[in-house]
Amino acid sequence: MNTNLPTTEKSTINLIADIGGTNIRLAQATAKSITDTTDIDTCGIDITDIETYQCKAFSSLAEVVAHYIEAKQLDNLVINACFAIACPVDNDFISMTNLPWQFSQKELKESLNLNKLSFINDYTAIAMAIPLLSEQQKVKIGGGTSVAGKPISVCGPGTGLGVANLVPLTVAGNEQWHCISGEGGHIDFAPINETEQQVMNFIQGLRKRVSYEQLLSGYGLEQVYQALLFIEQGKEITTINDKLSAKDITTKALNGTCDICEQTLALFCNVLGSFAGNLALIMNSQGGVYIAGGIVPRFIDYLKSSDFRARFESKGRLSSITEQAPTYVITEEQPGLLGAAAFVLQR
Fold it and tell me: How far is CA 317 from the centre of its chain?
C-alpha cells in the first residue's frame, strides 16, 4: 500500500463485511479482468485482507469496523462499503436479532467517515455472489442447462430457510443483477404423499401453521425426525435423551445406524426438491436454482442419489420448465463476502 499519497489525492477502496450473530468477516474488494463488454458476468473479483472477529469481543459494529480500518491503515482513503447482515435492512435503524447491536445506518456512515455505505440482507449477498461462482465453487445436481442472463433463484436450509432471486436489469446502458429478496421460506408447506401429510399433521400439533421452513431447516430436520418416530413407532419424545440434533440425525442417516434418521434425510431431500422446483416455476429460473446454507453441503453425494432432482422436475404439464433449469449446491465458503463485493463493485 502506498502511504505517501499527495494530500490532495486519496485512493478509493471497497470495504466489505459479512456480519453474523457469532462472527464478523471484514475484507477489501477490487475488480479484476475487466473487459470492454458490459456483460455482468465477465468481471472477476479479488477479495483481500480478510479478517474474522468474534462479535462478542466488541460493543458495537462501529467499534469493530473502526478497529479494522485502523489495523489496515485505511484512515486516509476514500472508503465505499457494503455490509451483508442477517436481519432486515429496509429501515435506517437496524437492531440485530442475535446480538445487542443497534445502530443507525446514516450515523454509522458518518462516524466511520465512509464515502458510501450499503447494507444488504445476507441472502441478497449470497444471491449476488452466484453469477461469479466458478465450477470449483458449486456442484451441479442432475440435468438442466443454465441460460445466461436469465433469472436465478437461491434457497438455503440452515438456521431458517432463506430465499432470494436474481433478475438481470439494464441500468444506464450497463447490464446488472438486481436481487429480489423476501420470505419465501415461510410459504405454506404442501405435502404430496401420505407420509408428508402425516408429518404435516404432526407438526401442526406443535405449531399453528406449517411452512416449508418447519421442515427445511436445522430445527425442521429435528421436527421431521420426531414426526417419523411417532408415525413409525407411536413414540413421542419426552426426555432429552430421546432428542437428536440436526447434526446427529444427518450423521446417523449417512452412516446407516438409524433407520428413522435415514427416512428423515430422504424426506428432507424430497421436500427440498419440490420447494426448489416451486422457485423455478415462480421465477422461470432458467439461470439455475442454487442451494446454499450450512446443511446441504454436508451430504452432496447423498443429495445426488436421492429423489431431489426427480421431485424438482415433477411439475405436471409444466415439468419442461424445471427439466431445463439446472440445480447446484454452493460450496464457496465465503458467499456473503463475495456477494457484498459484487454489490459494491456493481454500484
Answer: 30
